[in-house]
Amino acid sequence: MGEGSLVFPAGEYVRRTRALQAEMAARGNDALMLTSQADIFYVTGFLTRFWESPARPWFVVVPSRGAPIAVIPSIGQDLMARCWISDIRTWDAPDPFDDGVGLLSEVLKEVVPATGCIGIPMGLETSLRMPLGDYARVAERIAPRRIADATEVIHRVREVKSGAEIDRIRDICAIADAAFDKVPDIVRDGPALDRVFRQFQMALLAAGADWVSYTAGGAGQGGYGDVISPAAAAPLRAGDILMLDTGAVRDGYFCDFDRNFSIGTPSDDARRAHDVLFKATEAALAQLRPGMRACDAHRILSGAIAAEGAIPGGGRLGHGLGVTLTEWPSFTTKDLTVLREGMVLTLEPAVVLAPGRIMVHEENIVLREDGPELLSRRASAELPVIEL
Amino acid sequence: MGEGSLVFPAGEYVRRTRALQAEMAARGNDALMLTSQADIFYVTGFLTRFWESPARPWFVVVPSRGAPIAVIPSIGQDLMARCWISDIRTWDAPDPFDDGVGLLSEVLKEVVPATGCIGIPMGLETSLRMPLGDYARVAERIAPRRIADATEVIHRVREVKSGAEIDRIRDICAIADAAFDKVPDIVRDGPALDRVFRQFQMALLAAGADWVSYTAGGAGQGGYGDVISPAAAAPLRAGDILMLDTGAVRDGYFCDFDRNFSIGTPSDDARRAHDVLFKATEAALAQLRPGMRACDAHRILSGAIAAEGAIPGGGRLGHGLGVTLTEWPSFTTKDLTVLREGMVLTLEPAVVLAPGRIMVHEENIVLREDGPELLSRRASAELPVIEL
Predict the structure, then answer these.
(1) Cβ neighbourhood burial of A314 (10 Å; 0-12, 13-18, 19+)
(2) Which domains does chain A have, with CATH numbers?
């Protein structure tokens, strides 16, 4: 990142704002009210880890025309002023008597006529990052202005990545590739799982990640039970399958892929499961096209697994990726989202080896006109073996 | 962390649940509905970085008597089952047709009579981590049951830490102390600020942090402009004051303190500012007592700064600390929260050196009957100097 805080030239944010405004116009929203770290970063370039503190709400209002207005705690004024936003209204937060309610309401009344409608993302995979009580107060103050769901406005714009965004995701994928290369050395150097997790995060930072927002994994004899737990202090043993998964961040963009390793010679079952996962991913890499739906990606992946006589995992088998660790759509049987050129996605097939024992394989791609282009370096076809 | 996922023995969570239930009874809540990472970890011990994915909501319902009920995506079943919770209801999330709305509504109707009231935290420093549209659907389905603000229920219980919690925060503070000791070597080895940030995070992991949820800082000639920005690639120069601040995590508990360093010989102004900050912190360490209010802490800190002829920073001068990077109360003029024995707090005086140039100093304490006990190792009275 350069001296300023903008990840991209201002033109990128102007383009995004205009794309949102076109969606807003098509859906009858006179303004968009954004509260989440991801949406605010997307529109303004405001990048900070300070969201980790739940103390203060942050707001950006996108009017039907012109540049967004930031309504933020004064502690963020300097950083926001280095973004492309010039209309910045601040208050001293946290304020137990009025934590931005008055200021935000005034801005909404300023940019939206009394008969107008304010869009707020309130659908699947969203949440309103402000106190619910204050939301009710704002809604009351801005009446008779209506509030409507603007999830589609955000989703249809954010889900298609620009070339500049794809380059950023490719960068962080390459950083994770380099860190995964270190895993055999890390494991041989000290095989307690919690130590492996720490050293893997250090390897990500050493390779150039700005920070590591997510590391998870699993380890168990011939497979693992779950993929979201923190690491136990127990040592890895011969026969374990180790999986490491990461959402590392560079310039505000995430990677999200995993790698599996066999500690010592793998069982035939484990080797076969890895082979099935590899082939399922190959099928998706060959067949996925713009115009298909998210449920088609699920069908391709689970179908390829079943064709090999294995049992697909029950959860989603891939998802969007970008300014958060996971974005819509979800590769499930129920998600009808149309896959579009420029979407960055994960392919994440899972197989069930036995009750409570699974294996998961993940790659990151961008969907091109003629199919997926890999952003992560393709995993090896053979399950890698680490001899302790 | 051990083989299971419980940070503490089950008794700790039983005690917390009973304390919440006593507050609920006193305030007329027949159940508590929790959606945030912090509240759910606090009640159940469910610790995962998977919250980084915005895809799925998670719910825990605390009834007026007995153990909490988890209403969660099936991907979390294994991990939750290793906690002390036995009543776990799951659905396959994300589900675009019903993402837990039906299941959550049924549980609330099961444990709360039709004339009853469900408490949800909706005040300062809270947010509801679920889609706003789904919240409205749940509210409709559970009618005529009422929903009321339960911020006080959560705040009055979570803000007083048990001995076991204080031990955890002391552990992560010691880890950060060890990492801050490495900063002179890190800076001399390569003084680009973004590299310093990465190396500092690696030092935190090497010292035993499970992960590093927050690193921020600043660097500038004789002081810095803001304290929430990510690092630029620019090299540190003689005359810069470097500040590093971290919220590292061990076993789900945060530290939050910073350290200042002078690159080369500091200016008299910078040396003097550090001295003022040190003295202000000494004043708070000497004078703070249970029974005072948060605004009294602000008065002590800002008064000590003004008594030295310096200008206190405009923001809050300290706050709570625990299972999130920052917790209530806030040391401002407006926060009337009573300080209680067992609260873990940050003392964070700031001085303004010139427009856009500040210095901030931070320590972590637990408030005892006879005053503060330091959890971070006290910063040196003299501003440390790093010669490049």
Answers:
(1) middle
(2) 10-158 (3.40.350.10), 163-386 (3.90.230.10)
